[in-house]
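Objective 1.3, modelling of assemblies. Example input:
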Amino acid sequence: MDIPYIVEERPDTGLANGKLGIWLFLASEVMLFGALFSTYIILRTGSVEWPHGELNVWLGMFNTFVLIGSSVTMVMAWASLKMHDWAKHRLFLTLTLLLSAVFLVVKYFEYADHFARGEYPSHSTFVAIYFTLTGLHGLHILGGMAVMGYLLGPGAKMYKTHPEQFTNRIEYTGLYWHFVDLVWIFLFPVLYLL
Amino acid sequence: MHSDPAEVKKSVRTYLMVGAALYVGTVITVAVNQVHLAVPLAITVALIVATAKGSLVAGVFMHLNHEKKWIYGSLILTAVFFMVLMAVPILTVGDTIGTPIHHEMSGAAHAGAEAH
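Predicted structure (tokens):
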């Protein structure tokens, strides 16, 4: 049985179902991270003192560069598909996957440094909210990597049989990935600088 | 959103320029932090730059600058609830749970009872 409106747009919404679906998912993600940002505000305004300079700003800045770069390569992967350039699409999607791996490797070294100093989530309110926010964000990176890995591997063969559906999948993956980048754009100043 | 390959080709330059703008925004955020401004001003500047960067990502990379009204509608609803969520900390200012109500009055009554 064919599922309708995977590629063609619904007459009532003017959108393919997947497009509306990913945006509704992202809306729920906004509320998830919003709740944690709200918690951060409560903890920060309620604390007598708040630590400054606990985190390595330069590593955070490097990771911001890496994630912005991955967003650029992700949108280029989608644009390449739209321009029917399969080789460039593969190149840009692979670069996105590699950049996301670099982000997690840097995060691993940051976490390892905290643990070496005995700074576990129970250490302080700041460290607890830091691990919660960056940990959840890191899980989102892992999720994105899994999807990109699938689209580079077994999922890539769909392009031969259903190229438009595959292009839509890349677009939805891109929307998710840009959202993950957007969350980090706010996490970086909030945790590392302020 | 563009679906015509020629239109997408024109957008590629925009994507690269937005990427460069995001890098510049990040450098500005860190540079301002190195100046050691007063905390309220530092928070304001950092959040303004982050909002500008976020708008670029959402508007250009996520194609929100030309989307369908159903997506705008669902995002407006999300923005309303997000603002409510951000306002929750304000409620904690008026939170009296766990603190004695009419503390001074009960203290005075206690003192009066001791005098008798």
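Chain A touches chain B through 46 residues (CB under 8 Å).
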